[in-house]
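Our consortium's second objective concerns turning raw sequence data into structural hypotheses that experimental partners can test. To show how far this objective has progressed, the report includes one record in full. It was chosen at random from the queue rather than selected for favorable results. The single chain below, 253 residues long, was entered without modification.
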Amino acid sequence: MKNSILVRTEDLINNPTPRIPICLCLDTSGSMDALSGNFKLTGKTCFKDGKEWNVATGGVTRLSKLQDGLEIFYNAIKTDEIASASAEICIVEFNDNANCILDFANIKRQKIPNLKTSGNTAMGKGVNLALDLLEKRKEEYREKGVDYYQPWLVLMTDGEPNGNPKELSRAIERTRKMIENRKLTIFPIGIGDEAGMETLQKFSPNRQPLKLKGLKFKEFFTWLSQSVSRTSQSMPGEKIQLDIEKIKSWGEL
């Protein structure tokens, strides 16, 4: 832990480039094992993430496609000289609980963790932890005199939250307040037909949540990396116009 803090501090001292803090808040509940593609039903069922599911073999899982998308996202930023100096990413997963599985650091120091599914959908805990980590990193920027862009929160889920309702309410209230005060940009993304789009809308007063077409994680993360690149070439505080046309290739309202 001590070495991790030293590395984080060293990054800020050695690289005074304005930062884009990005937290990927990812659903890794049991339902992310749902399959698509060529699969066969076994006739068996199992209970996961608050629902009864048919057991199948073959196909690809939502989680494996998400993992592939993360690889594309990181590789695209690493090959962009300006974006790789600016972007700082952390990953929070939520299932029965919420955990930071990759903390903020220079992207070239980071290794993408292997995601694993388990349990339910404690979305409220996940978002609250993500917001805490973003606030902590902003504080470190200020202490070291490093400028930064408005933080990003990417919230991805394939279901409805079934964790502590008080945590969820607190997370929604905190997120909305930060957005209204122009202290946060959120990208709410639904995965699959069971995604709680109405809940995602509660987190996002100004931006309509989007649902992935099929499992187009690669297309989404390619678009996200291009948005990071565009932002890194602007001045902090400058309004950035997102590429709405490219959103249509991977997302739908």
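The partners drew two points from this record. The two ends are 42 Å apart (CA to CA). DSSP finds eight helices and nine strands in the chain. Both points have been shared with the crystallography group to help prioritize constructs.
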